């Protein structure tokens, strides 16, 4: 793991992120145990993500998923 851990994740709940490992868009719900929890657009089951695989979602990715 890099320097980014659960204690240093700078993203706030509600921000749209890309899970680059799964190539999935999700809304950050929480961080727990060194992992981030994302929920897909429109709701559904959350999944755990290694913070090293996260980046901010681009506008075109959010548009394609129908989110702002």
Low-confidence stretches: 1-7
Radius of gyration: 11 Å
> Oligomeric status of the shown chains?
single chain
Mean pLDDT score: 89
Strand order of the largest sheet: 4-3-2-1-5
Shape: globular
Largest sheet: 5 strands, antiparallel
Count, helices: 1
What is the N-to-C succession of helices and strands?
EEEEEH
Structural class: mainly beta
User: Which percent range describes the beta-strand content?
Assistant: 35-45%
Cα end-to-end separation: 30 Å
Q: Could you tell me the number of beta strands?
A: 5
- Percent range for helical residues? 10-25%
Q: Which key phrases capture this entry?
A:
68 residues, mainly beta, 5 strands, globular
Overview of the molecule:
The protein is mainly beta. It has one helix at residues 59-65, and strands at 16-19, 24-32, 35-39, 47-49, 54-56. A five-stranded antiparallel beta sheet has the order 4-3-2-1-5. The longest helix is centred in the last third of the chain and has 7 residues, at 59-65. The chain is globular and about 30 Å long. Mean pLDDT is 89; it is low at 1-7.
Task: Write the SSE topology.
Elements: E1 16-19, E2 24-32, E3 35-39, E4 47-49, E5 54-56, H1 59-65
Antiparallel strand pairs: 1-2, 1-5, 2-3, 3-4
Summarize the structure.
By secondary structure, the protein is mainly beta. The protein is built from one helix and five strands. A five-stranded antiparallel β-sheet has the order 4-3-2-1-5.
């Amino acid at each position: 793991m890099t320097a980014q851990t659960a204690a240093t994740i700078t993203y706030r709940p509600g921000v749209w992120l890309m899970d680059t490992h799964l190539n999935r868009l999700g809304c950050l719900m929480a961080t727990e145990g060194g992992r981030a929890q994302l929920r897909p657009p429109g709701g559904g089951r959350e999944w755990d993500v290694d913070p090293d695989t996260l980046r901010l979602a681009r506008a075109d990715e959010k548009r394609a998923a129908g989110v702002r």
